[in-house]
What does this fold into?
Amino acid sequence: MNKWEELDKKYIWHPFTQMKGWVENPQLVIDHGEGVKLYDTDGREYLDAISSLWVNIHGHNRKEINDAIIAQLGKIEHSTLLGLINEPSAELAERLVQVTPEGINKVFYVDDGATAVEAALKIAFQYWQYKGKPEKQTFINLGDSYHGDTIGAVSVGNVAVFHKAYSPLLFKTHRVSCPSYYHTTLPVKNEKEFVDTLLKELEDYLKEHADTTAAMIIEPLCQCAAGMLMQPKGYIRGIRDLTKKYNVLLIVDEVAVGFGRTGLLWACDHEGVKPDMMCLSKGISAGYLPLGATMVTDEIYNAFLGEPTEYKTFYHGHSYTGNNLCCAAGLASLDIFQKDHVIENLPPKMEVIRQHFATLNAMEFVGDARQCGMLGGIELMADKAGKVPFDAALQMGGGICQNARKYGLIIRNIGDVIVFMPPLCSTVDEIDAMLSRLEQSMEEIFAEVRSKDIKSFSDPCTF
Ligand SMILES: *Cc1c(COP(=O)(O)O)cnc(C)c1O
It folds into this structure.
């Protein structure tokens, strides 16, 4: 064990990590990165197939972004947005408004995804008080939604493993069925019928309760943290139409799916959805620095305008709101999107993923390998025809991901769903290598499943 592993195990409490297993097992210490590669302190090389937990876009140690941050450091590291303006936050706001869906015209900066959601919920709640409808107070959320780990975000989330301990602390929401066809328990024959059923369920609720509903919040196209649950075509369009019809705000959480992950810059773009609010983070600084944004329409922003003594101010902010370095990184990232034609270059990359996923879907213990652009989820099943999951004690997902390190691949599971989310800059060859390494690891673990009486693949660190 090297010095850093010792220090870490002595002092650090890791996120989403069972620390008992963590301290008992050998762990990697990352020393540096270059492009889609990570290097540990022993000099071993790994491909980063999860974009350093869904944030990296243009690769590690990217010169243009490094230079932008260094240039900004030469001027100033941070100045507050409470009472002052700074250059990079002003420029980034303009650029974000230019690239987000029509109607989204104002930027409220926050620190991360959870705070982007917190701010959106508070804005929606307060907005109706200024519109003379203070009774509009509740929120509609999706089954299996994840919006971050602060209490407001957890209230509109409901991934049982993460959230059930806090249930007495949370405000109540109305939850509609999870829009994942593979997982539905509704008696529907096809995806079209599934969408119609979901939208009817929503409309039935809105007919009765729109008067007391402030907003609906969704993760569009793919609910990532729930286990890469993908939504059928026409679903988000239908949600937008219904929320508009019944005068309920639509908050779109693009924290995970935004900045190109779905193959277009925004998930909303696939169905021409114009939300009332958009939550952004993760990819916003290309994986460099923590930054988030809650973006809103003029209609919402204008509702908060008034004299100081009307007390219509949005009383919310964070110490590092609009931080100069973070915004400089965000600007440099948007420049790369343009200069490298990042979105235009995605189709051949998505095609390699499609081909590998066809192979994966043919594997014995793969229940469903699903893809949405550059996002992928590989769900393991003990019996794929019967959709019978593996015994959780086996730790199949964790076992495969842990085993993949031996082949030079960093990838992570959510239970028995393996998440594939490569940086957008990954080349076709790099994506091919990532998925080939994953398949190797899977074959090896599957062979053990077939041949032996295995109790656990022992990745005791995840959940
Ligand atoms: C990661 C995530 C969040 C929370 O973002 P943090 O920066 O981790 O607080 C919120 N919503 C979605 C959809 C996410 O994937």
